[in-house]
Design a protein that fits this description.
By secondary structure, the protein is α/β, with parallel strands linked by helices. Strands 1, 2, 3, 4, 5, 6 and 16 form a 7-stranded mixed β-sheet that branches. Strands 8-14-9-10-11-12-13 form a 7-stranded mixed β-sheet. A two-stranded antiparallel sheet has the order 7-15. The protein folds into 2 domains: 176 residues, FAD/NAD(P)-binding domain (3-Layer(bba) Sandwich), CATH 3.50.50; 114 residues, 3-Layer(bba) Sandwich (FAD/NAD(P)-binding domain). The protein is elongated. The chain has 8 helices and 16 strands.
Length: 302
């Protein structure tokens, strides 16, 4: 089976869905392929999304966007694009299981995945709000709590410094044989942040919303909330296959119109170099979708 569309959107997170809403309202033929998982699913309740003063869960926000895209005629399908090829004519051919889709343009919104921390029953801990991944999103809700940042290097140290804005009861828990630069360690100490080494097998989730950690000093340390800071892995397979330019971390370089180094191939969301925020993904998706629409042949109303 083969289809031809104006734009193929790969990724069903906030960026992909926002792009779908825009393109559908531009009256373009658009298909969105959703792998079924988005990093937004980690969000138990977000209070920093504009327009939701009572907060909204990540899965609920995705559902709203999906409903909005369908309202305007976007076709959304579950599945995976295994290969993406650029044709001699400048378009693209995407191969799925038993399906081929031809598209004039592509918006890639596959995002990144969180590098999972060595925490037992991780999904349950996230649902209970014990484990969090984004201090920019919900650091405000952790103010004055006993906070731990769990990680294995300078990235975790930087996150601990960021969270110092919200609480003085803060600790950096380093997993593995980690030696921080002296300057980094000194900054943490000066900020009143405890630095402790722990073993991965010593992590435990307890009742009453308290996470417990057994440190190298033999003591049990209790915290109200733990932020994991093991970084992310970019979903770059399709971009790499096209030769799109990216940095060492796998984040794509894009133009002011969100176009990658491959003509007709756009990107939005966490896969792009920048701030991993839903609001940023939404804005990049709006820019990308509008650029795609303007680049395509005009389709005047009859």
């Amino acid at each position: 089976m083969s289809n031809y569309v104006d734009c193929l959107i790969i990724g069903g997170g906030p960026a992909g869905l926002t792009a779908a809403v825009y393109l559908a309202r531009f009256r373009r033929r658009v298909v969105l392929i959703d792998g079924g998982w988005s990093r937004a699913e980690w969000i138990t309740l977000s209070h920093n999304l504009s327009g939701f003063p009572q907060g909204i869960a990540g899965h609920e926000y995705r559902e709203h966007l999906g409903e909005q895209a369908r309202l305007y005629g976007c076709t959304a399908e579950k599945g995976y694009v295994h290969t993406l090829i650029r044709t001699d004519e400048g378009g693209f051919v995407a191969e799925m299981d038993g399906r081929t889709i031809s598209a004039q343009t592509v918006i890639l919104a596959t995002g990144v995945v969180e590098n999972k921390p060595p925490v037992p029953h991780l999904a349950d801990a996230v649902k209970r709000g014990l484990i969090r991944t984004c201090p920019i999103c919900d650091g405000y809700e952790s103010r004055d709590k006993r906070i731990a940042v769990l990680g294995n290097g300078p990235h975790a140290a930087a996150e601990a410094m960021f969270l110092r804005t919200y609480s003085s009861k803060l600790a950096l828990l380093l997993v593995g044989d980690v030696v921080l630069p002296t300057s980094t360690f000194d900054r943490l100490v000066q900020a009143g942040i405890k630095v402790m080494a722990i073993g991965a097998e010593t992590i435990e989730m307890r009742e009453h919303g308290v996470a417990a950690f057994y440190a190298a000093d033999g003591q049990t340390h209790n915290f109200d909330v733990v932020y994991t800071a093991f970084g992310t892995t970019s979903q770059t397979k399709l971009a790499r296959s096209l030769g799109a330019r990216m940095d060492e971390a796998g984040r794509l370089f894009v133009s002011e119109h969100q176009e990658t180094s491959v003509p007709g191939f756009y990107a939005a969301g966490d896969l792009v170099r920048g701030l991993n925020q839903i609001s940023v993904a939404n804005g990049e998706a709006a820019i990308a979708a509008t650029a795609v629409h303007n680049a395509l042949p005009m389709d005047p109303a009859s």
